[in-house]
Amino acid sequence: MLFYCDWFDPKHRGIRVNPKYGDVDIHMHRRYGSFDPFIIAYNVRQVYYVWYSTSPIDKCDWCVAVKMKPKGHTESKMLKIM
Question: Virtual CA dihedral for 50, 40, 8, 25, nearest 10 degrees?
């Protein structure tokens, strides 16, 4: 299965990672210039974007990518029994 995607530029100050929490901030107006719109579903994680309020000037066009589990998907964990 393939997904059609919009890519954000990881270079040129398009992405910031918070070292304390691991949150990924994305500048929504800095798109990746090369045209490669498809990705295989196995290689992706589902996220949604939450915009920052417009009051801080340094976060005006930025949002945070929040990981989420796909609907109906549960992650199984193996239990080690002693």
Answer: 40
